[in-house]
Structures are given as structure tokens and as C-alpha cells.
Amino acid sequence: MLVFLILFLLSNSFQLDDVQTKQIPDILYDELNIKDKELLNKLKKYEIVHPEDTTPTANEFPDFYSQGETVERSISFLHNGKKLVLDLVPNRNLVSPRYKERYYLPDGNTALRERTHDCFFHGHVRSEEQSNLALTTCEGFHGYIRRHDETFFIQPLFDQDRKRVAHVVYSPSDITGEKFQCPHDGIQTNESGYDFLNRFPLDEHHRSRRDVLTEIKYVELILVNDNSQFQRYRGDIGQTKLRAISIANVVDSDHASATECPINHMAEAAYALAPPGP
């Protein structure tokens, strides 16, 4: 099955309040890049964390993973005053061996690139069987974590020179003012863009070992970034592509965890539309 996943810049209906200079660990708020300032401005509350690598452990819950998958990296950080350890398993089937990237340039020509990243992980919170996560580790840790009845996001913060200075952790419910609106057809809904993460109850996420040859289904993805995505990342093709595959990794984490009809997603190609010429 072939599916097109079209990624566009969601219109945000929120208005930014006047923000006074804030001190966060290791860096002044004013020294953050514009995109990260915008993120912090629209969060009601957040926590600054500093993840560190820690010693990986053997799989605590073997039935949670497909046969042959092992924890290859573990990270830890303080969250709400308690140490949280994340055990990460590489999602090696996310990007197809046939994967290609195609970019449409302002002059009408196209550019092709081969696969460039292999930093996509699934996993769980250590010692918490009813948990799951999907993280990208290419430039810091970026993704979501679910445990018990809590879902939260983690992503890196960069200064104006693209130097990573910290990570921020926040809940989807703390994002203020966002509305889901498709810029192509004007459709708007009061539903948060992140509500889909809560449509898969954690008690359904416990995987049972299955016959890989007969039961796992694959959906091939074509990732399409429109011009607004390219502009959002200041013309950075690498960042635009990385975000697209990271979203596919999150979707794959939820769908592959389904008990009745597990589905794995595999990215076959990524397309990006560069800004139009003068």
C-alpha cells in the first residue's frame, strides 16, 4: 500500500503576548533562535532539561518488540523532580533501502539526494511496561513520550548560531491558542493537532510476539513538504526533511503498537518545494 503524507504549515490562531527577558538554564531567552522563542512564547508552562547518555539495559519487556530488536541507547533526565530513563530501540525499518529525496528548485530543476540520516528510535520508559516513545536523535532529542495517562514532548533548543543549549519538555495541553487549519481548503477544527496521540490507549500498546513473515503489514509513505514547510525552516532542506521523517516515526510508533492490526510505515521518498524564484 502506498500513502502520501503531505506536511504543511498549520495556521496558528494564537497571538503572542509581550514576553519579558527570561532566564533559562545556560542561556538568556533573548539569545535563542526565533523559532524556539516562538515555541516558548506559546507554552503555558514547560520544563528545561539536560538529557545525558546512560548505560543501556537488556530488554525488560521482550514481547514489546519484534524479534531481534534490542535497546541500543539509553538517556536520562530529571522530569518533575524525578529521574526518567528512556530505553531506545532503533527503528531500522522506517526508511526504505530504496529511499530517495527529490527537491524542486526555483528554476524548475530538481535535485536528488540519497538517504542521509539513521537516527530514529522507538522504545519505552525504563521499568514502565505501559509506556512508549518515538524519538529522533539526529540533532538532540526530538519526539514524544507516553507513560500512564501522560503524554509529553521533548525537543532541543538552539541559540542563534544553531548551537544546542538545552531541551524543553512540555505537554500538548500547554500549547496555547493553536487551531488545526489547512491552508489549502480553509477547514478549521478546535481539535489540537496532537490529539491523535491519545486515540491509542496505552493498555492496547502492549505488543505480543507475532509471526513477522505473516502478520506485519507495511505501508509505503511518500513524504511531501510544501513550500510553507521549507520557509518555516529558513530554507534548510535537511531540517525540513528531518521533521517529515520524524512525524512518520511517531505515526509508525502508534500504528505498529496496535494489537489487532499492527502496521509498520516505511518512507520511500521525500519531496520538498523550494521557495519560488524572483
End-to-end Cα distance: 39 Å
Main beta sheet: 9 strands, antiparallel
Low-confidence stretches: 8-21, 189-214, 258-263
Number of helices: 4
Oligomeric nature of the chains: single chain
InterPro entries: Peptidase_M12B_N (IPR002870)
Organism: Paramuricea clavata (Red gorgonian)
Pfam family, one: Pep_M12B_propep
Keywords: Disulfide bond
What is the structure about, briefly put?
The protein is mostly beta strands. Helices cover 14% and strands 37% of the residues. Pfam families: Pep_M12B_propep (PF01562).
Explain how this protein is built:
This protein has 278 residues and is mainly beta. The protein has a domain at 26-175 and 217-258. It is built from four helices and 18 strands. The protein has a nine-stranded antiparallel sheet, with helices on one face. A five-stranded mixed sheet has the order 1-17-18-8-9. It has a two-stranded antiparallel ribbon with strand order 2-3. A hairpin with a 2-residue loop joins strand 6 and strand 7 (82-90).
Keywords for this entry:
278 residues, mainly beta, 9-stranded antiparallel beta sheet, 4 helices, 37% strand
